[in-house]
Records
---
Amino acid sequence: MTIVGLTGDEAVAYAVKQSRVDIVAAYPITPQTIIVERFSKYVADGEVQTGYVCVESEHSALSACIGASLTGARVFTATSSQGLALMHEMLYVASGLRCPIVMGVANRALSAPINIHGDHSDMMGSRDSGWVQIYAENAQEAYDWTLQAFKLAEDKDVQLPVSVNLDGFIITHCMEGVDTLEDEAVSQFLQTRKPLFTVDPEKPITVGALCFTDYYYEFKRQQVEAMQNARGVLDKVCKEYKGVAGRHYGVLETFGMEDAEAAVICLGSTAGTAREVARKLRAQGRKVGVVKLWLYRPFPNEDVGAALGHVKAVAVFDKAISFGARYGALCSDVVSALHTLKECPKIFNVVFGLGGRDVQPADIELIFNEALEAAKTGLVKEETVFLGVRE
Amino acid sequence: MGAVVVEAGSSLKYKTGDWRAFRPIVDKGKCVNCLLCWIYCPDSSIIRKEKWVEVNYDYCKGCGICAHECPTKAIEMVEEQK
């Protein structure tokens, strides 16, 4: 194991290099650019055997990836924001054709107004496209999850595309000491992909054929099944990864939840700040905790229920808006995971960080205080808090 | 899985005639074998016989053009019973 100074983007590119990917087709977009920039350097320097397809748009990038994946190749792409939006049509084709593509998503706000900074609007806008969604907290996690994502995607019971999300700039551009594996260790963990179908002139197959009222529904039902399988396969993959890397991942990570009365649940880099604030508050004897969700799709209902079921109040942090809905996407999922419990905690939504709006420890402390208040009184003062907005 | 068709040429097995709501029935007595229906049929579903025509119900989609064009009114469109 070697500790290397890498930004989140570079960490992803390095993991892709070690994953011995056959094809990369991608189009650069801030703040994802460095992933493909760094990887194209590996290609140009002859450090990898990967075929790099230069395309004219993200729609073409994912289209090329789908074609390559269907031949049995290991495939990677990366994008962000408008690029992911331009891929939208092909996202559904990738999952529908069960292509185990791994995509790095440098989460960024969507236009308009145009903005390059980090929030989750892009991936939340693609929430129902049938992709497994994983959110990393830092560059280390982005590296570790990229390696694990290939194994998860390519598992015979999953065969689904996986997105590894990293917060734009906060993770993509911040340099950290990343504990990397030796190439041999990665090769041992991640063997060559074993595709269920391959391109063979002796045994021709048809993919993407017309499928009407007679069968379409059944294929969608199979995707539901595959998503459910991904939950269990993830545990298996994480266990194996622990064996080679020593770091143990899962569907979520908790801090202080054993005796917490009020909790915050969030995705990605926010968890680091929330944990630090919780540590400070706990030192003052206040019973708060943090749940960081690594796996967002499939949504781990039971795990979220087990992690949050015993607290009195939960603040759900959403770095995206679902216009016209009662809650943001994550909050809706948390409510649906908890509402069947005998005693459902008081839940409120915190919309924050849109367009990269900074969230300071003091902001999160404010929310912990709100949550503790709700835990004490049993009342939610404000159903949705727009944290840090000027109005 | 993934809607993969694992054999070649399987489109031959896809009989598109099951879209049909109305079935053309040919009255062989009235048919003068002029073949206007054969010319007009957009799906090549009219089968030529020596003295009259028949319909290939595997592919006929029941559009009714044959019945409309028939000069002797030898073709009647009858609703399909499912």
---
Amino acid sequence: MNGDAAQLAGGFVTVDRTLEQEFEARLKESSTLAFRVAYSVLRQKQDAEDVAQEAFVRAYRSFARLRDRERFRAWLVRITWRLALDRRRGDKRRTAREDASDAPEAVVGAEADLVARERALLLWQAIDALPEKLRVAIVLASLEGHDVDEVARLLALPLGTVKSRLFAARQKLRESLQWMQNETAKR
Amino acid sequence: MDAERNREALTDPSLGRDLQALLAIEPSPEFVARVRTRVASEPEPRARWLSWTFAGVVAAAAAVVVIAVYLAGPREIASLAQMARHAQEGPAAATPNVQARPHTQPTVAPDLSGTVSQATSRQMASSQRVTGERAGSQPASIQPASNHLLSAEVVLDPRETAALRALIRGAADGRVDLAPVLQASTPTAMDLPPITEIAIPPIVITPLAEEGVRQ
């Protein structure tokens, strides 16, 4: 009896260790992805880390059914996007922080000149103006060299749907940027 | 110069590069460590998985019990219906009317049991209609139970029976008001008189008559 119990407990421990190891591997390979997805919505590094962390915690709770790599990454992207949107909507201090920062941090560090900052701001505004379906597609396609297939897997959408959304997103971005540049030139 | 750069920025490759540069931001070095710490404070995912498994097993067991009760239920209901029918037919044939008997003899209470058995048989009959043919397929196993029911007769004093009937009729007609009785609280225990010594008089045995005297 005791031997059976010990064997059973040993089996659970093995399952636990395997789960922990698999989750650790997913965390290592997907942490930047989750952070960047959150950052594309929030534009604040600290907020993006908080949201990505929360997404990982939720993923850990449901990890028994998210062990497949592709499934995990797709689920993580979706939950991170949702959490970031919720945070953005709910955070009343966001506007004040944006005013204080005045520009995305990446641009501040990488391209400090004024033209680059202005262009980045215009680009963010154009991205914000996109419908959500197009926005998430173009953001994912712009992340760490994701191709269309990867975006389709992450969004669990057919390849053709993703291609048409990316095409529409780029077109709208060009139109928005053109309009903004014209407005800036008038001033 | 700026116009040229802006025009170039609107081409697809340039737009793609700008977007990549916009999102090429790394989390802080301690981010993964913070996630690990936070995850470590969470309960193990195995426990949740096991709890769902346990809940599933409990639900399956409950379903099996419900199905077993459902399958076994109609037979019992059918047997009860048979018993009620026999009880209704048996005592009525044996003792049709209490009032025809003399009041000095204890008698079976056929009307009360008949009333109960009629009500029971009505309920059982409706259940029997639901169970259908299943009820009719089990008569052999029911027979001993119905015989046992018939042999268990309740003997009541006819005066109590008459009084109870009168009470029921009075309550039904409104001549007897049972409200005070129903609202009465539980009577308190009767106070017993103090225990006193019981004086038992000595037994006196009177001697027999003188010897030789015969009557």
